[in-house]
Specification:
- It is a single chain.
- By secondary structure, the chain is mainly alpha-helical.
- Helices cover about 50% and strands about 10% of the residues.
- The strands form 3 sheets. Strands 5-6-7 form a 3-stranded parallel sheet, with helices on both faces. Strands 1-2 form a two-stranded antiparallel ribbon.
- Helix 1 crosses helix 4 and helix 3 packs across helix 4.
- The two termini are about 20 Å apart.
- The C terminus is likely disordered.
């Protein structure tokens, strides 16, 4: 919904440099998107994981408004979905405060009545637990929903939850990797996503 990739990559670079004196490549840092911070850092530097998380979080918060970029058409799409009767929300690996601040900075917080963030579950994507919690809070079945994401773990989590997924290529994931994960569809533009979501001939789960 918003382009946080430049912010995320820069935050990873700052944390790794300030704590360990090394910098990940942009490609490596990009591959970590979609996972929790602690999961990413503890899997690589368990003895310094909390320091890395703290450094990342502080720098990320300080530079949120400088590096956050909007994707044109998102606010209009969310408004049109709500107007059609769809219930929409966010399931993210970000912490609540980070997700809330990001949505607020982009002017999207009022469009999303549901937020499931890192603190809400013990397991995280690609585990289905966060998506299953969202379904429970919405009071709907997996077959009635579609999960839209930009990372392979998003597609994997949706599949494990019994949900369809739509992968978008303007985010973190490589297109070939997204296709290989097996979503309902892969879209390259906001117009393609809108057409799929509102297409009366598409499968019910995609509307």
């Amino acid at each position: 919904m918003v382009n946080t990739i430049p912010l995320i990559i820069a935050s990873y670079e700052h944390a790794m440099w300030s704590v360990l004196g090394v910098r990940p490549s942009p490609e490596e840092a990009r591959g970590w998107i979609g996972q929790t911070l602690y999961g990413t850092f503890s899997g690589r530097h368990p003895e310094r994981a909390q320091e890395l998380v703290d450094s990342y979080v502080a720098w990320n918060a300080d530079h949120l408004t400088d590096l956050l970029e909007e994707y044109p058409g998102v606010e209009e799409l969310l408004a049109d979905l709500a107007g059609s009767g769809a219930v929409i929300g966010v399931v993210t690996s970000k912490r609540h405060v980070s997700a809330t601040n990001t949505l607020r900075a982009a002017g999207l917080d009022g469009h999303l009545p549901l937020l499931v963030a890192m603190e809400d579950t013990d397991a995280h994507k690609p585990d289905p637990e966060p998506l299953l919690l969202a379904l429970q809070r919405l009071g709907v079945r997996p077959a009635e929903c579609v999960y839209i994401g930009d990372a392979v773990v998003d597609v994997q989590a949706a599949r494990a939850a019994g949900m369809a997924s739509i992968a978008v290529t303007w985010g973190a994931g490589d297109r070939d990797d997204l296709v290989a994960a097996g979503p309902l569809a892969v879209v390259d533009t906001m117009a393609e996503l809108r057409a799929l979501l509102f297409d009366k001939t598409a499968p019910d789960v995609a509307r």
